[in-house]
Specification:
single chain, mainly beta, UDP N-Acetylglucosamine Acyltransferase, domain 1, ten-stranded mixed β-sheet, six-stranded parallel β-sheet
Length: 193
Amino acid sequence: MNDKRYFVDSTAIIDDNVKIGDDSKIWHFCHVMSGVEIGNDTVLGQNVFVGKNVKIGSGVRIQNNVSVYEGVILEDDVFCGPSMVFTNVINPRSDISRKDEFKMTVVKKGASIGANATIVCGVTLGEHSFIGAGSVVTKNIPPYALVYGTPAVVKGYMCSCGEKLRFDNKNKAFCKRCGKNYELIDGKVTIIK
């Protein structure tokens, strides 16, 4: 009897000592290394590589051709677009081992990273931030920020449901799609309860 409550395609390689949550799916040609923890209802698209000891939350969607290297943490409900890139060393050289210099990268709950974006290691992407396709992120991104460009800069703010927020002259915003209210103070967006 198979007691697994997740799906792994027959072409995927799952190393020993990997935890995979219920209802998760790992598709064609993926490689998940030892020490990885994957939450519930998470999907790894075709040709995804997950490095040693990476933590991936629940409800995460990692699209095709993404490598999540050691030192990356993906919290719940993160979206990684096709062929986006994480790094884990600031100054790599092929002839010098720098595994003791890996820098942590944290992608907070609900953040979305567009296709072909590059996330330079050592940064934190704030809750529900939105990284535009093809952007290069070199510094921390605040919660709810919409960023794009090379290097990526804040161009606006997004609701947790994915709609662009428009702030009035009192620095308040109302999302017409989901009804949430927000406030912008000193470049920081928070939900008004």
